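Troubleshooting log. The previous structure file for this entry was overwritten by mistake, so regenerating from the original sequence record. Sequence copied from the archived sheet and checked twice against the printout by T.R.
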Amino acid sequence: MRIVLGVGGGIAAYKVASLLRLFTEAGHNVTVIPTEAATRFVGVATWEALSGNPVSNSVFDDVHQVNHVRLGHEADLVVVAPATADLIARAAAGLADDLLTNTLLMARGPVLFAPAMHTEMWHNAATRANVETLRGRGIAVLDPASGRLTGTDSGPGRLPEPQDIFDAAIALTQGQSDYQLPLAGRTVTISAGGTREPLDPVRFLGNRSSGKQGVALAVAARNAGATVRLLAAHMDVPAPAGVEVVTVETALQLREAALAAAADSDVVIMAAAVADFRPAEISDTKIKKRDDTADPIITLIRNPDILQELVEVRGMSRRSQLIVGFAAETGDGHGDVLAYAEAKLKRKGCDLLVVNHVGTDKVFGQDTNSIVILARSGSDPQLASGTKSEVSAAIISRIGLELNHVSPRA
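Regenerated output below.
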């Protein structure tokens, strides 16, 4: 694959050398186009040595090859990293004052921006408008990672990790014949992990959820062009770069966060394993095990049904929103997994229900999954299996079809 790698003039340019290495080691032919400012951070010699191709940022070099037209026409993919506030603004305005912006105007294939800038710049109304302009044109713009910035400041604005940019870039080129991202311009809220209900300052009621499926969904939604908000309960894996993270612990905290996040979300995916019950009382001190006292009796009370409440709130607001539930089920003498799942779909009223058959060494904590997607519309059940990343891609693809009112393939 022929890739143009545009490098903006930010301190994070040094990280892009690792991204370039990932592309070349995967067998891709990469032409690097740094801005003039970028060469103050990383020199041309570095880009030429790592790419094996000549490097220029001027439309007047090798004029006979008409590079300002040719490079964009021939590229199968254009990636811009770091995409500074200035570079995003120039691209949104359609300026063509150097080789990189000319190439962006001429690009026929998919384009991915990986922003990096100070937090205030990222949150500035002008930058947000420019990002939405690019996304509205079908250009993929990742959200920056959060963490330590230049100097002592921390916050959203860090360049996503090179591997995350690489994954998003490759995903952008797979199965996208018209290069349109299915969730471009959409806001998606995803819950992940397992809630914990405290018994005392030491103990809690929890479950076996690792958060792997929810995190994989966040990555798939991000790669599909969405602005992603991850409501993270207890997880054994880190949250991905390029998504907003809201940390919760209990079912009640998740309920509050989900209702708030749903207010501006086009899609809500409740993938977290939420405790059905919580202790009626929480001890302020550790519950002691004493020989002279009886065994404690723990009374449980129901937690609110967050998924059902989200559906009810949507109905009252009459807003257009897709709500996806997850059902971790086991069969018993009264019915099999799908029978219980179909009853749950009818009871909850969500649009899609992703059904897992759970059990010992199944789903929880594993890297693979097998699911069935049920639809409130009554369309045929859709099966998907494989790694949790592959399953997530199938779920996000189905969500894209639902949003665009396209019937899934049998």
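Confidence is low (pLDDT under 50) at residues 175-179. Archived copy saved in two places this time.
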